[in-house]
Amino acid sequence: MSKSFSGELRQRSARIWRAIDGHPFLSELHAGSLPMNRFTNFILQDYVYLLDFAQVLCLGGAKSPNLEILELFCRHALGAVEVERSFHASFGKSLGLTRKQLDAVPKGPRTQAYIDHLQSVARGGTLAELVAAVLPCYWIYGETGKRLYKGRPSKPKIYREWIETYAGEAFWAPVREQIALLDRLAASASAVEKRRMTELFILSSRYEYLFWEQAYRLESWPV
């Protein structure tokens, strides 16, 4: 039986995904030893990223050829907004941050670059290309949560809750939907479009690595 296109993309980006698995941010998070200021940096950047990510998903809905796919993107965009409203606001409260402080957070350099990449694909690419570009955000977080779930730390509580969220079925259900949609769209894609999908999937995977790196190194704009 031939490998699915999503499986091929994952194989092509395996080196990047292994680097993510071994990143000290995640290793220390799993051990419960990650300094809280690094986790706070990550939560703040993820918070400001999610609004733009939801808008990218809305543009995916606008490209949808039928009501089924439109409904999927609308539901996923709403889910991203709800995560921003509740999940991250809850984490922000645990970290002593108000909603006003969260909304005032500037995008870091890697966050801005990642969002610019996704928005460019959302505006100028095909639906299949857009799905390939957004899928690593879904899939990598799901795989990370599932991998870290075993042996997750009891303290601090906020680290355990973060891991449990991404390991859970509520998060994995939309991950599987996007993987299935990618394979469905790839079935009718041209060779040129598949090559572009591969390039976008790999680039987004690299941005995912850089997002962890930004949080761990507490990076901000130098000037």
Tag the structure with descriptive keywords.
single chain; 223 residues; mainly alpha; Heme Oxygenase, Chain A; 11 helices; 0% strand; globular
Structure report:
The chain has a single domain (17-216), classed as Heme oxygenase-like (Heme Oxygenase, Chain A, Up-down Bundle). By secondary structure, it is mainly alpha-helical. The protein contains 11 helices and no strands. The chain has helices at residues 5-12, 14-21, 24-31, 36-62, 67-94, 99-103, 109-124, 127-149, 157-167, 169-186, 191-216. The model has no long low-confidence stretch (mean pLDDT 94).
Radius of gyration: 17 Å
CATH-assigned homologous superfamily: Heme oxygenase-like
Q: Biggest sheet, in brief? A: none
Q: Give the overall form.
A: globular
**N- to C-terminal separation?**
53 Å
Would you tell me the structural class of the helices and strands?
mainly alpha
Say how many strands there are: 0
Share of residues in helices: over 70%
Task: Indicate the CATH topology.
Answer: Heme Oxygenase, Chain A
The average pLDDT value, as a whole number, equals: 94
- Helix-strand sequence: HHHHHHHHHHH
